[in-house]
Amino acid sequence: MAAPGTAPIHISLDADSAGAGTDDLLSAMLRANPRVSDLIFSPGRQVQVQVNGEFVPVEVTALRSLTADDTRRIASHLIGNNKSAIAMLREQGYCDISYALPGLARFRVNVFIQRGSCAVVMHVIPTVVPELAKLGIPLEIKNILGIRSGLILVTGPRGCGKSSTLAALVNYINETEACHILTIEDPIEFLHNHKRATVHQRELHSDTPSISQAVRAALRQAPNVIAVGELKDRESMALALDAAESGHLVLSTFNTPNASKTIERFVSAFPAAEQAVVRERLAKALRCVVCQRLIPRRQDGERVGVYQIVLAEALHDFLHGGHTAHDEKPLCPSAIDRELERLVRAGIVDSGTALAHASDPGALSKTLATE
Q1: Domains within the chain, CATH numbers bracketed
Q2: Helix runs in the chain, H state only
Q3: Is the pTM of this model over 0.90?
């Protein structure tokens, strides 16, 4: 059975769907369903959107399946005169950009070449910077955000809201600390206004040629807090660790399912001869790991955030104990699985969905079987 909200969406447009009419098409797609999270344009298919994690076709008047010319014109409209994005698309076959519909929405856009034609995926970025309480993040995180140095990592699978969590952490510091915050993003998603803090945001390609160069330069720009959209390679990980050790609070994200795999991915990025030293450095610098999932609710298909915060003491013991990514227990029992159990018993999430997102499905299944 289809999830709620996944029936085809019908929209009517007076303007051409591509080129100059692209903004009209985007606006109509967003207004058709308030829970649209992603828009997809692929040759040979109808326009699609993602609603509550489900792909939904969009039936547009006078537009059936998109052609390669349609998607090329849409991509060209979104990229505009961004020369670095054009060069990257030509040289590497993809590019990441941001795009805005003033007064309506901002997007993180990926344009890529497939079978010789353009495809476009657009992720909707809310116009309001999220707050910790509204996301449901345990408020114990506030105690950690008041520290002056160290490394905080937000982890989880792709599409689970890590960027929103990172933005909420930055926003809380912005509201509560008189400090200098520097973000390095690919591309910039949420726009942060100066509040108690002064916030500077740098975007890959338009403001800096690489994440690593931006982190290296940040050490000379007097920030108290450095937020990096994602640590993707050894050089950026090493520089983030250097910054955390030299009196900066560093926030970033990792595409890993839990804290132990986060640590192992970080350590294994370095040569074997350096890994013992990196473990020791992480044990001193890592303040917490925020693990999260977005789980569809039973009633309406909207997704609810489920979080686990693993604190420094457990991380320190794990790193000094020589554990591997297969050893989840030393990092403490999974708060995510306990929260999934609570949601199932409250009738908010069905058991099959909970088991699909659990850290230990076997253990959770046994727990749910008991009254």
Answers
A1: 9-125 (3.30.450.90), 132-332 (3.40.50.300)
A2: 22-32, 68-79, 83-92, 132-135, 141-145, 162-176, 211-218, 234-245, 259-268, 275-285, 312-320, 335-345, 351-357, 361-369
A3: no
